[in-house]
Amino acid sequence: MSDWWREIFRDRPWWMNGVMAFSAWMTFVYMPWDIFIKPTALDQEVWFGIVFTGAWAKILAFPHWFVYGAAVYGFRRRRPWMGLAATLYVGQVAIGMFIWPILHYGSLMGWLLAFIAATPFIGLTLAFWNARDHFSEGRRSLQERYGGWALVTGASAGIGEEFARALAREGIHCALLARRAEKLEALAEELETLHGVETRVIACDLAEADGPEQAAAAVADLDLGLLINNAGVGGAGRFDKLGIHRLRQMVNLNCLAPVALTHALLPGLMARGRGAIVITGSVAGRQPLPLHGVYGATKAFDLMLGESLYVELRDQGIDVLVLEPGSTVTEFQEVAGEIQHHGQSVVEVVETALGALGQQPSVISGWMNWLRANAASRIGSRPMVAYVAREVMEVQTPADMR
After folding, report:
1. Is the separation of the CB atoms in 132 and 84 below 8 Å?
2. Residue 344 Ramachandran class (φ > 0 left, ψ -120 to 50 alpha, else beta)
3. N or C: lower Cβ tally within 10 Å for the chain?
């Protein structure tokens, strides 16, 4: 537990950690009690020094609750908007603390109390304003943070292809790995022309027993700073209707390949003292998924592996992230045998991943996906969640495979 607390409070000045802890108390303890338990007749809310009571106090407590919750999130994840937001909010508290004694007491006493009450908050406002850069430090370029080369598996299409483009835009050289050499060569030419980076094409099937070993040998001479374990495959259909070759392929490519490749390349990353590993999982790994059972199980494996490595490697200077997209507009749906359906763009998914890298162990792409995944795991019973998931997957699965 001590390591967990240290992780939560690391890389912030003590006074900022104090404000974050206070915001957490208000978010999870005081505001729920204030809104749902405290009698309306006793309720008071203050905005800009104006005191609201009764029903208006209850109503205006909700934006207060939102502000404190947003503050916890902004502090914890060091979101760039937090520097200005914290300054403005604490500034309005300072204004309120100045106005309230004057309105309440009047005369010289009111003015004196106003200056006394407002001064600490004016100081805190200035502190947040001067600490604005704290919330942008985590957004340093990937090239500054990790340098060198990136190996992107599954780079011939979809999320992997977009990862390669995003990394190249940051000035990172890219080793591109997939089975289809012609697709990789076209992408390599694009990255070299548009971004001036070096590339290396590696035609390799990671689902084969010696695939990860071949991949590791192909990048052994590179100053590898990032490993994007993105290659994966799905298979829509009832378990007994899917061929054993496809089932083995899913387990080999989605589970064994990232284990073997990460294990082979990790010593080099540790020797550098900095680096990053991304594993493309899926929200499918958050709950049982009938008609996609083996695929969902492989992604649950990826989630547990990645979140464990996040803790194991954090003190070694290596950031680990599990990216969990929902339905995404790629060729995955066609290859997996799914009926085409709406999804996020690969640009949104990759932006989410790179924004979360170094900040958290896993990230679900898209708020609706986050809500669905968390509602499933926290509200419904496991049998209910499994049956609901089957209904969702039936719409995406051809009739002859149900």
Report:
1. yes
2. beta
3. N
Q: Are 229 and 329 in a shared domain?
A: yes
Label residue 55 exposed, middle or buried (CB < 10 Å: 0-12, 13-18, 19+): exposed
Mean pLDDT value of segment 244-250: 94
Q: Same domain, yes or no, for 291 and 394?
A: yes
Indicate which residues carry an active-site annotation: 295, 299
Q: 280 and 175, same structural domain?
A: yes
Domain enclosing residue 32, as ranges: 2-137
And the tokens for 209? 């027993």
The shares of helix, strand and coil residues in the chain, as percent rounded to the nearest 5, are 65, 10, 25
Number of domains composing the chain: 2
Q: What mean pLDDT comes out for the span 61-89?
A: 90
178 with 109, same domain: the answer is no
Please indicate, yes or no, whether residues 252 and 381 belong to a single structural domain of this protein.
yes
Yes or no: say if 162 and 169 are a contact pair by the CB < 8 Å rule.
no
Quote the pTM value.
Answer: 0.84
